[in-house]
Write a structure and sequence with these properties.
The chain has 328 residues and is mostly beta strands. It has two domains: 32-260, Single-stranded right-handed beta-helix, Pectin lyase-like (Pectate Lyase C-like, 3 Solenoid); 273-325, no CATH class. The chain contains two helices and 29 strands. The chain has helices at residues 2-29, 49-54; strands at residues 35-38, 63-66, 69-72, 75-77, 82-85, 91-94, 102-104, 110-112, 115-117, 122-127, 133-135, 138-140, 144-149, 155-157, 160-162, 167-172, 178-180, 183-185, 190-195, 202-204, 207-209, 213-217, 233-234, 252-255, 258-260, 273-279, 294-299, 306-313, 318-325. The protein has an eight-stranded parallel β-sheet. Strands 3-6-9-12-15-18-21-23 form an eight-stranded parallel β-sheet, with no helix packed on it. Strands 4-7-10-13-16-19-22 form a seven-stranded parallel β-sheet. The longest helix has 28 residues, at 2-29.
């Protein structure tokens, strides 16, 4: 019996070693990125985000695509991957009131299109890393919505950071951070909190609405609160807009050395530019022929005087038309 057991164990061990070796070989030799699917109740590559991140098959540069569902997890992203939800409303990562919901410990990570909720500490914790992006997420019911510590050159963009239990976005010793186009609303203590030498950050196109305190600095820091022509929307801004250009006539004062010189009169809703009408005499254009095209473009955002590019696709040609608009 002992000999039979030994004969059974040895091949099993060899099989396990072969599988691990193969996975290691794939990870270390593959020169192209792959996309891996996570689904909690349907067939997929993995059934949990944690399982995907920790799999030896998933390498730096890969994308982990998470289908809709509620994932009760505390995820540590220790590889340079893009973690992308199917959509930010129905792809939910719930920390269950424990620790951080998602902790980033690798450079060049993207977190995109999730609802991230119920973190005892942070919804997303960015720790000692560079060049990471957190975008298009809903962060709510965490202690901190997003927390950056000892990290630089990161981007936080187009998130809804709402109704967190203390601070919406917290930066400690994190410089050169770009924070743009976020809705930072109704956070219990502070909308955004900068301290520990968080300098040279650029913050613009954010909507600061009904936070108990919009901004708090523990130490003075020099940051830029606009992108050169437009700043942020502040629900407690009392300035006027005499020339009706969507920008307040006086700065929004944050503290000594920090002010928003171009406060928005209305909440920022993006550059909503759309082609409203195209007029052409002929709808069929032969190869080598030319036809004059009249294009009307509508700017439905609340800012005036910006440049943009768009492409009109025709068969067989593609026309790139750089335009500048100064009209609402």
């Amino acid at each position: 019996m002992k000999a039979e057991t030994t004969l059974w164990i040895v091949p099993t061990i060899l099989l396990i070693i072969s599988i691990v070796a193969l996975a290691f070989y794939i990870q270390t030799t593959r020169s192209y990125p792959m996309t891996w699917i996570v689904d909690d109740d349907e067939p997929a590559n993995f059934s949990s985000i944690h399982e995907a991140i920790n799999s030896p098959l998933v390498a730096n540069g890969d994308t982990v695509f998470v289908r809709t569902g509620i994932y009760y997890e505390n995820v540590v992203v220790s590889k340079s991957v893009s973690l992308v939800g199917q959509n930010p409303v129905n792809t939910i990562v719930d920390g269950g009131g424990i620790g951080d919901v998602i902790r980033i410990t690798a450079d060049n990570v993207v977190i995109e299109s999730f609802t991230i909720r119920n973190g005892q500490n942070s919804g997303v914790y960015i720790l000692s890393v560079d060049n990471c992006t957190v975008q298009n997420n809903n962060l709510t019911s965490n202690y901190y919505g997003i927390c950056l510590r000892s990290s630089s050159n990161n981007t936080v963009s187009a998130n809804n950071v709402t109704a967190n239990n203390s601070i919406g976005i917290r930066l400690y010793a994190s410089s050169n951070t770009t924070i743009s186009a976020n809705n930072i609303t109704e956070n219990r203590d502070v909308g955004i909190y900068l301290f520990g030498g968080s300098n040279a950050c650029m913050l613009y196109h954010n909507n600061f609405i009904d936070n108990t305190q919009q901004v708090y600095f523990l130490n003075l820091a020099n940051n830029t609160w606009n992108n050169g022509y437009a700043g942020n929307y502040w629900s407690d801004y009392n300035g006027s807009d005499v020339d009706n250009n969507g920008i307040g006539d006086i700065p929004y004062i944050i503290n000594v050395g920090n002010q928003d010189n171009y406060p928005l009169i209305n909440p920022y809703n993006g550059h909503n530019v759309a082609i409203s009408n195209i007029t052409m005499k002929r709808t069929i254009i032969g190869l080598g022929d030319s036809e004059r095209m009249y294009v009307e473009v509508a700017n439905t955002c609340m800012l005036f005087g910006f440049a943009f590019n768009f492409s009109v696709f025709l068969s067989p040609a593609i026309l790139h038309l750089p335009l500048t608009s100064s009209e609402p």
